[in-house]
Structures are given as C-alpha cells and as structure tokens.
Amino acid sequence: MRITIKPLGYVLLGFLTVLAVVLTFSPAALTPRKRVRASTGYSVAVLSAPAIGVNAVPAAPTVETAGPGVFKDTIMPGWRLDGWAENIRVEETSGQDGRKSLSVESQEPFRGIQFTSETFRPGLYDRVVFYLHGGSKGGQRLRASAKAMVNGEFQGRKGVLLAPLAGKRWEPVVIPLDMLGLTGVRQGISFFVMDNQAKPFHLWIDHVRFLKPGEKAPQNPLPIRQMTIVPGTESTFLDNGPRPLVSPNR
Q1: Is 145:158 a contact under the CB 8 Å cutoff?
Q2: pLDDT in tens, 78-116
Q3: What is the pLDDT of residue 67?
Q4: What is the CA radius of gyration of the chain?
Q5: I need a labelling partner for 147 at 20 to 30 A (CA). Which of 15, 27, 117, 245 fits?
Q6: E strands of 169-240, at which residues?
Q7: Rounded to whole angstroms, how far apart are CA atoms 101 and 99?
C-alpha cells in the first residue's frame, strides 16, 4: 500500500516532531524520580519529593536522664529548679565547690527552693549532700523534705529539721534517703529546702548531689532531726518530739 502525504500532513508531522523533542528535554522530564517513605510506612513515588512526607510526625523530644549531680555552677541535665521563694537566682559568687552558687531569698515565711526530676532513679544512692551558707549573720532554721513519684504524681514523704546555720561559712548537709522516705522509690523524686521559722530569710546553696553507699561524704555535717508528714496531708510536718539534733554520719 502506498501512503501519500499531502502538504498539510507535512506541517502536522513537523509539529508533532518538535513537540516530542520539547517534552523529552524539558526540566520536568529531567528531574529524577525519588521515593520517600511517608509516616504511614507506604513507599510513594513522587517528583522532586520533599525530605519529609506530608503526613510525617516529628520525632518526640529527647528526655534527659538525670544523674546523681543536681547543681554545680548550673542545674544538671535531667533536673529542673523551681521553688516558692520570691528570689531564686544563680550568683557569680565564690561557691563552696565552684564559681557559682544558688541564692534563695524570701520575705514570706515557709518559702524555699525545690529540685525535681521525673527520670532520676534513687535506688543506687543512699544520701543526698549539699552545702548551705547563712550569710554574715546566719541563724536560719530550715527543713529539708522530699516527694516521690507514685502513679504519675508526686506524693509527700518524710523530712528533716536542720540545726540553725552558723553564718560566715559553708556548712555541709548530709541526709540519708531513708530519712526523706525515698527508700525503695524506683524513679522520680522532688526534694526541697525551705524556711521553718516563719521569718524572712536569705541563704545560699551549692554542690547538690547524691552519694552511693560507701562513697565518702563531707566531714562535720550540720546536725539534723527526723520529721514526718501529717497523715492525709502533703506538706504539714510533725517534729516527732524534743529529741536532740543528731549527726547524720553513717
């Protein structure tokens, strides 16, 4: 069979040839086809796909696991610092064991400073240690107490009464965890140091950390006395009688 192409046919054939060349070498045709995995798990073919699929879910933030160090020049990873005193700040002063210390000041009674971690596991440790400074006069009467994470909530445990601060020097405080009611707690604690004489106060605290059994503690720590929480409350403490303050050394 013989095919005869008329002049109009040449025009149409030329147009189709040019169109094919344009499509073949266009930028869209040269763009490589990528395959990205969407959050659903299916592999989807796209042109010039973005790095993240439309339905991709951002990764959850990493939660820092708290270690035994709580504060030394700065609050340590996994711990957070808050409290009830009106003025809590890191001061560029000569701390007990570093360049900085925490200043805690309040004109209201029964205020204090609190250290909290939802990830700290106290089972490896048996004491909490920190240093207090009472300024030029001293005389501050304080207590230290703790809460433990139970069923997703912090619940009050025990506390101790501290001997009055001497002033003009750093004094070590060593508290066995069983006196704070933290024995057997698996994870998550909060402990705080606060006023116990219903007066305005100003103090400094430094080098807060937990010690393992057998780990050396500071010598001549401040005497302490056991207190317990009144049943049915989370913050009211009983003095447990007029027993003398005792050294926590063990």
Answers
A1: yes
A2: 999 989 899 999 998 777 877 899 999 999 988 999 999
A3: 84
A4: 34
A5: 245
A6: 170-176, 189-195, 201-211, 224-229, 237-238
A7: 7
